[in-house]
Amino acid sequence: INMSTSIYEGLIASGFNPQQPLQVRKTVVTQELGKKYTLEITNGYPSTVFQVDGVIIKTGRKCDKLVLIKTKETPSEEWTQIFVELKGHDAIHGMEQLLATAKNSTFASPSNKIRKARLIATSCPSNKANPLVERLKRDFSKMKIDYKSLKPGQKDRL
Q: Is the dihedral of CA 134, 50, 40, 78 positive or negative?
């Protein structure tokens, strides 16, 4: 992706069409296999959703969706990236998928102002009991990615 283009323009130029067009919406809802991610956008920013799994990334570890929110227009575009993995139970695998996707150069762009990763899982292991979860969380924070796991039905806010 050309570094002078925004993350959105880069994905479009690479031939990827959004699942939901770039437009202003109060709520972004994206779902797969009965799992749902809901993001409330309070300040009228335009948002779009891309299917990552099977479309942008076909092989290896990848998350389900990428939600992009355009938070600044000029002088240069700024975007908030939210990687979304809709999981049933295997939360650790979900975290690994999110991390692998965030590391993928396809999603690198100077226009990425804020990067987040959201795991929607029915059950998440508690950190204290799990050194792997701790390590993955440290990996997210090293990459300056705001990681959070949400229960199905729990809303996220921008």
A: positive
- The residues facing 65 across adjacent strands are 51, 84
pLDDT along the chain (158 residues), means of 10: 77 96 97 92 95 97 97 92 92 95 96 96 72 93 96 91
Dist CA 106 CA 61 (whole Å): 14
Residue 38 DSSP SS3? strand
The answer to whether the beta carbons of residues 61 and 97 sit under 8 Å apart is yes
Query: Alpha-carbon distance 71 to 39, whole Å?
Result: 15
Phi, psi (degrees; rounded to nearest 5) at 24: -80, 125
Q: What is the pTM of this model?
A: 0.94
